[in-house]
Amino acid sequence: MRPVDKGTRNDSINPYQLALEPLTKKLGRYCSYCEMQVYNSLEVEHVVSISKGGDKHQWHNFLLACKHCNGSSNKSDKVSSRTNYFWPDKDNTFLAFDYDELQHIRPHSGLSQVLQPIAKATIGLLGLDRFPGSINPPTLGDKRYIKRNEVWALAKESLSDWYQMPVQEMIRQIIRTATGHGFFSIWMTVFKDIPEIKLALIDAFPGTAKNCFDQNGNPAARPGGKI
């Protein structure tokens, strides 16, 4: 999950849907949770649910979400506090999860015993473990797993292209492909051994929290976060 920096605002945004344009300018048209690029049905999402006491019109309580991460079968109105989950605007969520091409998203193997349950709860809250044959299968309209699979294939093909032609022009092409499809964490995972491409990805995806990565593009603990 891409860690993001959306900046701060102190004004009341009413109706809250008006936050969509400034949020997308800050973060791009990507779901803050599954990382899928979304052009239709991208939503201003309340981190702490309004029904549970979350601020309805305040920037600090907004992220962007696709209709599946924010749907009734997943996050919806279930969150009363940020405490028991990881959040991409507060934590280095890239350190929280492992991704693989079998469509699995799991708590990162390096997490402590204290943080493992938080990662697991976050995955369950957002339905990031939904794919056919899993314990938690997707709803009929939920095709996030298909998009993840498509991007894995693109990222692996791009890695092969890089090894055949490791030049600046290829980096630009890889970045165009990555930002055009989303799923930042998949690209960062596939290119984990190529610092120059990881750094280019961090720069290219708008709103990526740069204080969550070191000078080689490796993840670092986020100041003030749980991780």
Name some characteristics of this structure.
mainly alpha, 227 residues, two-stranded antiparallel sheet
Question: What does this entry look like structurally?
Answer:
- There is one protein chain.
- This protein is mainly alpha-helical and 227 residues long.
- The chain has a domain at 150-212.
- 31% of the residues lie in helices and 6% in strands.
- It has 6 helices and 4 strands.
- It has helices spanning 20-27, 116-126, 144-164, 168-181, 184-190, 195-204; strands spanning 43-46, 62-65, 97-99, 105-107.
- The chain has a two-stranded antiparallel ribbon with strand order 1-2. Strands 3-4 form a two-stranded antiparallel sheet.
- Strand 3 (97-99) and strand 4 (105-107) form a beta hairpin.
- Helix 3 runs antiparallel to helix 4 and helix 4 packs across helix 6 (195-204).
- The two termini are 13 Å apart.
- The mean pLDDT is 96.
Q: Please give the alpha-carbon distance between the first and last residues.
A: 13 Å
Global shape: globular
- Total of DSSP H or I helical runs spanning 4+ residues: 6
| Helix and strand sequence | HEEEEHHHHH
Our estimate of the beta-strand percent is 5-15%
Average pLDDT works out at 96
Compute the gyration radius: what is it?
Answer: 17 Å
Weakly predicted, low-confidence segments: none
Largest sheet at a glance?
Answer: 2 strands, antiparallel
**Strand order of the biggest β-sheet:** 1-2
Structural class: mainly alpha
How many β-strand stretches?
Answer: 4
Level of helix content? 25-40%
